Amino acid sequence: MPEGPSIVILTELIENLHLHKPEIIEVSGNVTTIDKDRLLHQKIQEFRSFGKRFLICFKDFTLQIHFMLFGTYLINDTKKTPLKLGLTLKKDQLNFYTCKVDLLEGKAHSLYDWSIDIMGDEWDSKKAIKKLKELPDSYICDLLLDQHIFSGVGNIIKNEVLYRSRIHPLSKIKDLPLAKIKELVAEARHYSFDFLKWKKEGTLSKHWEVYNQKVCPKNHPIAKKEIGKTHRQTYYCTACQKKYN
């Protein structure tokens, strides 16, 4: 599943095409969740990312694309996978595969809480801390994946941030010192931008300290378990990461 930084990269790739309010001249694909005719001859106002969602913004509505677990995209290219949505512009083509497409009435700036977007300029760390403290009995491994708190954080970021913060994934919020909660929130944003940098360089996996690893940087064995209420695959070091209780 693409995480927030990967959606930022998609947005930047399209921005690099230097499109200026391009008109959609053809709509294709097997998408059934929207009226494709609604898009025809509409001018795109801008492209944006919000957490794990890619947004194509029009004057009065917003097209939201979520890549789910296996979604992909191609710019000015195609592949054999059934096309979910294809948008043909004057000089370029945007193709989306194995994704969820929704059309939302209204402009993007009013549809989303931009303060929870981990990659966004409006990210509000104090708000994240407040929301975490309102869920004292929740495991931190689950809360890092809560898109209402950390929009854009996925499983890779979760695992790496917990290791950086030296917090065991099954620690509950009520047992974490406030300083540790603040550190965790700060690391969630810091690591997201490190992820972005390394992804662009093609070196992301070389920087993983626990995710998909057998030992941590200190040569301690890594545990791999499906834990928490979300039962997501979690990698952690029982020696380096303290379980608060």
From TrEMBL:
Q: Which Gene3D superfamilies match?
A: 1.10.8.50, MutM-like, N-terminal (3.20.190.10)
Organism the protein comes from:
Pedobacter paludis
Provide the protein name. Answer: Endonuclease
* UniProt-listed PANTHER family: FORMAMIDOPYRIMIDINE-DNA GLYCOSYLASE
Q: Which residues form the Formamidopyrimidine-DNA glycosylase H2TH DNA-binding domain?
A: 114-197
Q: Which UniProt keywords apply?
A: DNA damage, DNA repair, DNA-binding, Endonuclease, Glycosidase, Hydrolase, Lyase, Multifunctional enzyme, Nuclease
One GO BP annotation is: base-excision repair
Segments forming domain Formamidopyrimidine-DNA glycosylase catalytic: 2-100
| Organism ancestry | Bacteria, Pseudomonadati, Bacteroidota, Sphingobacteriia, Sphingobacteriales
